Amino acid sequence: MMGTQSPEPSASSSDQGGSVVLATSPTINGVAARKRGVLTMDGGIPASTKFRYAFEFGSGDALRNVIPLPPAEAALDDSGYSLHGTGPTAITCALGSPEAVLGEVTRLSPTVVWVAPREAKVDTSEARTFPVYLAFNGITVGPLNGAFIHTDADVPHAPVGLQLVGVTLEQGREILAFLADALRRGVAEPAASALPVQDTIVDPERIRSIFGAICASGNKGVLRRQGRVVRMVLERYHTATNELEWSTEEPTPDWGDPAYDIDVIGYNSAYRMRAETGRGEGDRLFTTLPEQLFRIRHRWHRRVPAPEGVRARFHHPLWRELGLMRREVLDLSFSGLCVRCMPQDLMFPGLLPPLIELELGEGQTVSVRGEIRFVSSVRADGSVLCGLSVLPYSSDEARWVRFVSQTMSPATRTSEGLVDQLWDLFNRSGFFSLGGSSPEEFEELKLNFASLAKRAAEVPQLFCQAVWPSERGIEATLSFTKPYRHAWLGHQVAKRPGKPPPGVQEAGQIMRDIYLRTFEHPQSDPDFHWVIAYVEALNPWIAKAHVRYAERQMASGSGLAYTRKIQKMKAFSHELSGRDHREFDVGPATDGELSLLAASVARQFPNCYVESLDLTRDRLDMTPVTQKWKSFGMERERAILVARRNGIPYAAAVMELGQLGANLFRLLDNTRMFSLVEDGTRAYAALMDAARHWYLERRRPSFLYLREDEGGSYVQECGLHDGPDPYMWIISSKLVPDFLEHISELTIGRRGAHSR
Predict the structure, then answer these.
(1) Contact at 8 Å (CB) between 271 and 244?
(2) 160 beta partners
(3) Which of 12, 436, 442, 520 is the most buried (most CB within 10 A)?
(4) Vertex 80, ends 76 and 86: CA angle to 5°?
(5) Torsional sign, CA 543, 549, 550, 554
(6) How far is residue 129's CA from residue 292's CA, in Å, rounded to a whole number?
(7) How many CA within 13 A on the CB side of residue 288?
(8) What's phi and psi for 334, nearest 5 deg?
């Protein structure tokens, strides 16, 4: 409970000193095959279809001595840069001889060439490799060895793809020099970079909230006008006049005349506004609050500066003769890095380093694999910045998640070793009194809770139990656990009442930090689709932060959020209803009845409810979830019973059980009941008594019944005890960055010093 209180490149292997590197090939639909636990990633979002090559190592030596990979496995087939030059700014490709020009190159890297052919038809039936020549600005590179890859020969002037094989280091330098020149001329762009997503915000209250948060956080902005750029900061929001006051450190800013286009960074978004009016006064610019705001989602995961001294150590996947590279990591997220490299490192978008060893300090390292997503132009200091998508190897997953979580939210930490302080916080905050409970009721679970708290930090795949500590104890806590295949449950939020500790200037800082730590944690999970919570809306913070947010999303009709009031009723396992159930036969659901149940639930509830709670037909038994919890030595189980009358299924009970201590209100020990016919509730008492037997067999003295309908006479017939009526709250993982933006606005925006 929450309450503050193409033909496929063949797989290949190579040997060096007894080490073996295996590369998996893409499947027909472009999704990488999974071997020995290998995962794929997609531009910052793990386990998707874009990162179509994965790597696994056959020995420990291979992790330390990675060998060069064949070109087909070292980069994506859409790697490199898209080209749109014409005439003298175009790169041309010739086959067989430098004079036999095939056409203009539209995409290029040291491993692949895509060409727009000049002839309507190109014979791509040649299976062997042949000479390939590239020409640009009077310079020719070649011969290179190339072979045709996927192309549509039946379509006139269809693009032709060529895989380059055995490109030497010197040839690679020449190709990348071509591309550097094309970038300088403005006729090339990284092919792998993702486009931002944009939407429009027109609600005045929302716009005011966003700018209030931005001015409090001191985030940077950029004014663009007729080719000029002025970097600035939103200094104040004057509420009386609805004016925004911007400042710049430039000595003589040329504000010019409006209109102005202004970009400014929020928590996880870039916002763009158009100011039709404004005035400059020295280093200050005053504009009116815009009537609409364009939001550009620029990252799925928030990135933060890397700790001092973090280095990335790796070999080039194509040219091992470049030697071991050790480069500074500038920033990071759960799925990405920015690394300072040198032009001579020969990095390009789409390159797939199979092993990057990250030096974290104090002798700690984490092994990840990655994809180069972006390479900047050469900077003033002679370096280039490389953006990478990364995914840790399974053996380092827990260490990677802990490191990134702590880096992103340094004021928070996990709760192991702080159980007594955490228990004290629950007492002080009134958490143990939620729903009419008393602190004494929880004492029997304290040992289980303490045991789980110690293990949770070692199992980030299932848990995140975060706290905000200070010199006087724990100030706040919030936990996440993964009870379903694609959903994480947010629960056990509590905050110390009264004033914040010394040194905390913002009233909302503690809650903001704890929300960022826990809500960002599931983003490291490639199966993360939904967040679930049961929230007590009587608390004003919870009502505004959760319920109002979900209601606003529901009103938009996106289908990405759901909230409604339910009732959590208690059932004691030994306390049978005393009713005569002989008219009903109760037993495990058959395959046909499971299909009937799934169809019935889908009719009664929105898709996000069905998907998040594993109530789809293929996930009803929750076998993968049970197996995952079991692999960590923990309990998680679901069983489904059906009550039949004269062979006709009347109702079903979906019973769940979770590890003791995972939730102090035993939220994971819950039962839901669903009618399968019009008067199916008449079978609920029989199902509830059967559920009591099921929980008794598993040594659970009580469990929760989650009443999600209007109730009725069956409640008394079942012998259920009244309980609290929280809101069930579900949002899509797609909304998490926006939700955290919302939390940032609620908390940061309270600082009155920045608004007048």
Answers:
(1) no
(2) 115
(3) 520
(4) 135
(5) positive
(6) 56
(7) 11
(8) -60, -30
Structure tokens at 271: 């916002």
Rounded Cα distance, 4 and 740, in Å: 17
Two tokens at 15? 């040997």
Q: How far is residue 705's CA from residue 724's CA, in Å, rounded to a whole number?
A: 11
Please state, as a whole number, how many other Cβ atoms lie within 10 Å of the Cβ of residue 164.
Answer: 24
For the chain, residues with pLDDT lower than 70 are: 1-78, 150-154, 191-198, 225-228, 267-268, 297-301, 749-756
Q: Using CB atoms within 10 Å of the CB of residue 603, give its burial: 0 to 12 exposed, 13 to 18 middle, 19+ buried.
A: exposed
Could you tell me which residues are beta bridge partners of residue 83?
A: 188
Q: Is 23 exposed, middle or buried (0-12, 13-18, 19+ CB in 10 A)?
A: buried
Of the candidates 69, 131, 58, 127, the residue with the CA atom closest to the CA atom of residue 94: 131
DSSP letter for 17, please.
T
Q: What is the pLDDT of residue 152?
A: 64
Closest by CA position to 110, among listed 410, 396, 369, 317: 317
Q: Side by side, which strands form the sheet with 567-572? A: 567-572, 702-707, 670-675, 648-658, 636-645, 585-588
Counting Cβ atoms within 10 Å, is residue 699 exposed (0-12), middle (13-18) or buried (19+)? exposed
User: Maximum Cα–Cα distance for the chain, whole Å?
Assistant: 94
Contacts 24+ apart (CB under 8 A), 142-145: 142/94, 142/98, 144/171
In the block, tokens 């109760």 appear at 586
What is the distance between the alpha carbons of residues 60 and 713, in angstroms, rounded to a whole number?
A: 64
Whether 233 and 284 have beta carbons less than 8 Å apart is answered as no
Q: How many residues does the chain have?
A: 756
Q: Which two tokens stand for residue 133?
A: 């020549």
Q: Left, alpha or beta for 309 (phi > 0: left; psi -120 to 50: alpha)?
A: left
Residue 147: count of CB within 10 angstroms of its CB: 18
Q: In terms of Cα–Cα distance, which of 122, 26, 131 is closest to 78?
A: 26
The residue behind tokens 């608390």 is 539
Which of 420, 729, 372, 736 has its CA nearest to residue 551? 729
Category of 386 on φ-ψ map: left (φ > 0), alpha (ψ -120 to 50) or beta: beta
Q: 736: which residues sit within 8 A by CB, 6+ positions away?
A: 519, 520, 522, 523, 531
Cα(first)–Cα(last) distance of the chain, in Å? Answer: 38
Residue 661: which region, alpha, beta or left (left: phi > 0; alpha: psi -120 to 50)?
Answer: left
Neighbours of 604 (CB within 10 A): 13
Token couple for 135: 């020409």
Q: Do β-strands 336-341 and 325-332 pair in parallel, antiparallel, or remain unpaired?
A: antiparallel
Angle between helices 509-520 and 397-408 (to 10 degrees): 160
Q: Which domains does the chain have, with CATH numbers?
A: 74-190 (2.40.10.430), 197-297 (2.30.110.10), 304-405 (2.40.10.220), 567-724 (3.40.630.30)
Specify which residues 557 forms β-bridges with.
none
Mapped onto helix, strand or coil, the DSSP state of residue 588 is strand
Contacts of 20 (CB under 8 A, 6+ apart): 13, 14, 57, 58, 59, 62
- The per-residue DSSP string of 152-210 comes to -TTSTT--EEEEEES--HHHHHHHHHHHHHHHHTT-EEESSPPPPEEEEE--HHHHHHH
CA 560 centroid distance within chain: 15
Rg (CA), the chain: 30
